[in-house]
Amino acid sequence: MNELKKGILLSGANGFLGNIMCRCLNLMQYRTIGIGTREGQIIVDIKRPFDLPQIHFDMVVHAAGKAHVIPVTKSEQKDFFQVNLEGTKHLCNALDALPSLPRAFVFISTVAVYGVDEGHDIDEDHPANGHTAYAESKILAEQWLENWAAKHNITLGILRLPLVVGPNPPGNLGAMIRGIKSGKYLSIGKADVSKSVVWAEDIARIIPVLAEKGGTYNLTDGVHPTFGELEEAIATALNKRKPIKVPYWIAKGLAKTGDILGSRFPINSNQLKKITATLTFDDTKARNELGWNPTSVLRKIDELTASL
User: Fold this and answer.
1) Residue 128 lies in a domain
2) Are strands 186-188 and 279-281 parallel, antiparallel or unpaired?
3) Residue 49 in contact with residue 202, Cβ under 8 Å?
4) Which residues contact 262 (CB under 8 A, 6 or more apart)?
5) Residue 4's pLDDT is what?
6) CATH number of the domain that 77 lies in?
7) Residue 130 placed within a domain
8) Domain range holding 113?
9) 256 burial level (CB within 10 Å; 0-12, 13-18, 19+)
10) 174 part of a folded domain
11) Cα–Cα distance between 295 and 280 in angstroms, integer?
């Protein structure tokens, strides 16, 4: 048996991405200790100050965060900052209290920090102009970590991720798979807009490289599939017919109905805008500096659909 490599503290170990990263890092022979709510993990409420066991962690991967929810009230908006910003501070304060600090800290951020709804090949030089509670809380967390890491001479790596894809995906992708599987999914317009995606296991594999070098990077699968390509690949994998297409003008009318009815309706104008506008990000920097060589999500559809 190979000797275990140095220890990693992983926050958000119960989450979709955190769970996949924990499994992959363990397979890579890292000794991973999770912060979460399950037995065998360090159980904490990241929204409040907490203590860590007095042991040394060579690296921290901070994947805990609040996402995939559209806040309606001021209280819900505040919760993004309480988890994504204050939770980051609480984690670092707990690390400060240990006998020794980690040599590296990897923060899981988001392309939402750029604050764009459409565009092609947006790179890391684009200003962080996000104005949603999610984006702003991540921007502030990135900035706070840069100061904290510089103060302690810790290598800081920041990953700005698009849609993360893996087995049993949450959110709209999971809903797409289930809808195609049940025959209740409708394809809107030409379905020819591209979106950046990234395979979750690839993210785990680049963590050790990033921890050595540091820096801020976009990650994608490099293919940026269209909705039509995803829909067709999923339908083929499930042995289902291609989804029925709905003209854009009909979808627009339905979306306006959703604006009135709210969450009781499956689509609104904001959601329609997102799924009918191309939005891709450039990962050239990661390819050149980290040796990033990602997997095409389209080649993983069988694995993806088998989980639902």
Assistant:
1) yes
2) unpaired
3) no
4) 268
5) 52
6) 3.40.50.720
7) yes
8) 5-169+197-221+280-296
9) middle
10) no
11) 16
Reported as a pLDDT band with limits 50, 70 and 90, residue 266 is low
236-241 contacts, C-beta under 8 A, 24 or more apart: 236/301, 237/301, 237/302, 237/304, 237/305, 238/177, 238/180, 238/181, 238/305, 240/180, 240/181, 240/183, 241/183
Whether the predicted model's global pTM rises above the 0.90 cut: yes
Say how many domains are in the chain: 1
Per-residue pLDDT tens digits for 104-142: 999 999 999 999 999 999 999 999 999 999 999 999 999
Percent of the chain with pLDDT over 70: 96
Residues in the chain: 308
Dist. CA 94–CA 80, nearest whole Å: 20
CB 46 within 8 A of CB 90: yes
Whether 248 maps to a domain, the answer reads no
Residue 1 has pLDDT above 50, yes or no: no
Token output for 170: 């949450």
